[in-house]
Each structure stands twice: as structure tokens, then as C-alpha cells.
Write a structure and sequence with these properties.
With 432 residues, the protein is mainly alpha-helical. Helices cover 74% and strands 3% of the residues. It folds into 2 domains: 300 residues, ABC transporter involved in vitamin B12 uptake, BtuC, CATH 1.10.3470; 98 residues, no CATH class. It contains 17 helices and 4 strands.
Length: 432
Amino acid sequence: MATASAHRTRPRVGLQGLWPWALLAVLFLGLPWVFHSNASLTVLSLIGINIVFALSYNMLFGQTGLLSFGHAVYYGLGAYFTMHALNGFVAAGIAYPVEFLPLVGGAVGLAFGAVLGFLTTRRAGITFALISLGIGVLVASLAIILRHFFGGDGGLSGDPTQGTHWFGDTLAHQIQVYYFVAAWCAVCIVAVYFYTKTPLGHIANAVRDNPERAEFIGYNPHQVRFRVHTLAGLFAGIAGGMAALTNGIVTPDALGFVTSGEVLMMVYIGGAGIFFGPIIGAAIITFMQVLLSNYTNAWQLYIGLFFVAVVMYVPGGVANLFKIHMPVVRYRQLGRLLPAYALMLTPASVFILDLVFMVQMAYQFHSSSQIFLNQSFSFLGIGVEVHSGLTWALALLILAAAIGAGSLAARYVNRAWDDVAAHIKAARGEAP
């Protein structure tokens, strides 16, 4: 009887958990057939590099609770050493396959992650954040001082099409660059995922949530943080190596605060602590950077506003939105939320459009004031006079109306969510 009972309760291994991986594989293989222009392939390659970089940062921030302001150090050093290795192998005639050069960046990231991490991970919280900030300042300064190694402001360049290519991927065409990045991105995604299932990955979550309890049951929080920091440096270095070979040049910006801030935004916007969150965040931020920069010089402002909005209203990130809606879909209650969402969509759209209009009008006002007055600009095909007080007053009035209507719609959304939550609890047999 005991054997039969154990047989009945043994979990069955099925294919249900494989569908995200199958979808990811289809996306990697199929995207070039949909977005086949060189510009689109370049964006996809950048997304792949940033995915690996964001996953490495999420190992620290989302899974271990270490807020780093200098993670770009390992990304940038991996890129520089990869470029030096490429140039050195080509000059010496060493037949090292270019396809595996990101391993050089990974080894460098691993080494520096271990050396610097042994010191920085002795403390967590704000102490670790400040130490990582200081290390970022130090390395960024060295990139300017040590011009022989870092190449100064102009950076270090190389030709990835030269050298040995085992798989015929010479990186001479953008489609080859894409599949090179996609292959490494897929390998790193799988590796990081399996890391999260290891004992180290689980105890890292425990150290993040309660380091005192983790120490009480026999684990050293410093050793856990140190090992995770070292592995995070490994994947950051691989991402830097891919970036060096993809761009053919590495500049000191790869080590700077902007790069560290960007990866932080990717992880937080996508959803820190959720495995697919950094993947989503990397895709969103990279796409916004490329798309917005083609239309406005104020693209950094829009990304900053978007980040602030996520911090204030979606603190769990975009991936958490999907997570909290999964029970709603499972219990077939999404139909109760859609009318409320549709009602909220109108004032939200008006607010965003009006805010964009005011930002663009302010930017045009500053530019035209330096050239000549009474210069108009076009927004959505409509000519607008930026120096007219009536235009600004009307824009502010529309903004206030959108905020008011949005507040009313938010109450309707909250009531709809309360009804759905009550229905799900009743379906589960839980007390209201």
C-alpha cells in the first residue's frame, strides 16, 4: 500500500514546463525572417547582448539582494580584454576561433568578479552599493588614465571578421552577427536558469530575504554573496565580449555610470527576481533607446519618466503584471477586468500624448529661442505655436482633465479587481 501510495503521489514529468523554452527558440530562429533588414537585425543583436547583461545583474540584485552601481565594470573589462585578445591573436597568427572569444571576456569578468567581490560582498545593503559605486569610479578613471591599454577617449577597435572562424560565421554580415549573438544568448539564458535551480541559487534567495536565518542554519552569507558575485561577473564579461565583437570597438563608456544605470533599469522595469523579467526589460529599454532616438533628442528624458512611472505604479516590473494576471486567466475572470482596463485606456492615452506634446514643445521652445522667435513646430501633423500662452494653458488643462478622469477610472479598476479577487478566493475555497 505504501508503494502504491508513493507511486500515486510521485510528480509526473511532462512537457508543460518546456513551452517557454520552445517559444524562446522559435523567437530566436524566426525573428530574422520577420525583421530581416540590417537595422532590425542590429537592434535584435543589441537586445541579445543586453539580455545576458541584465540576467547577470539580476543574479545580484533580484536573486541575492545586492544593489550594485558599478556592474558595468565587469561588462566593460570583459569587452576590453576580448578586443585585446582578438587583436593579439590576429597579429600573432594564432588560430583561435572568433566565435569563442566571448569566453575571454567571461574569464576576465569571473576573475575580477572574484577579486573585487571578495572585498565588496563582506557587507550588503547600502554599504555594498556605495563600495560598488566607488569601484565604478575608480575603474572609469583608470580607463582615461591608462590610455595605452584602454585607448583613451577613442577606445579600442578591432576587426572581428579577421582571424579563424570554425563555423563559417565571419561576422561580415549582420545576419551572421545576429545568429552569433543569439547562440551565445541562448546558452547564457539556459545556464543562468539552471543556476537558479541549484542549491547556491536557492540559498542566495534566502540570504536576500533573511541573512541572519541563513547564517543560523549553517550558511555563510558572505561566501554566498561572493560566489554569486563571481558568477555574475562571468556572465557580464561574456556580454561585454559579445558587444566588443558586434560593434568592433570598445569605448570607456562601457565602464561608466550610464551603462550601470541602464542595466539597473532593465532589470527593475522587467521585474527583478523573476527569471524572465530581465529578458523583458532588456528588450523594452533597448527598443526604446533605438526607436525614440530616431524621433526626438529628448529620448533619455522619456526613458527616465518611464522608469519613474514603473517604480511608482508597477514596482514589481512588467513580468509581475503577467504573473498577477495568471490566476485571473486560469479562473476565467479576465472578462471582468477588460472593461475596466478599456475605461482606463482613454485618459491614460490622453495623458501620455499630452505629456509628450508638452515635452516636445518645451524642447522646441528652448531651441527656437536660441535661433529666432515665433517658430512653430508640428505635432501629429498639426502646426503649433510654441510661444503662445494659450497653447501652454490648453495643454495644462488637458493634462489636468486626463489626471482627473484617470483617477475616477482607477477606482473602477480597483472595484473590478476586488470582485475578481473575491471570486478567485471563493473558487479556491478560501475565507473572504
